[in-house]
Amino acid sequence: MQLLITILFYGALAALLVVLGLGIANLARTDENQPSRSNKLMRLRVFIQAIVIALLVIIGFMAGAIHF
What we know:
The protein has 68 residues and is mostly helical. It has one domain. It is built from 2 helices and no strands. The two termini are 21 Å apart. Keywords: Membrane, Transmembrane, Transmembrane helix. Pfam families: HIG_1_N. This is HIG1 domain-containing protein. The chain crosses the membrane at residues 46-66. Residues 1-68 form the HIG1 domain.
């Protein structure tokens, strides 16, 4: 189970890098849809970051590094 969560974590990190790259590339565009697209990419990036953080916390619990 820990291996599956770890694979999901790295997949989510890769998705985060892709969205971040798309956001940076979108800054160079000058069409009228650029602000709307930038806002959507920002919201998607924040959503994926939340998933990555949640997966990292789950990995910490499973590894025994986080105790309450």
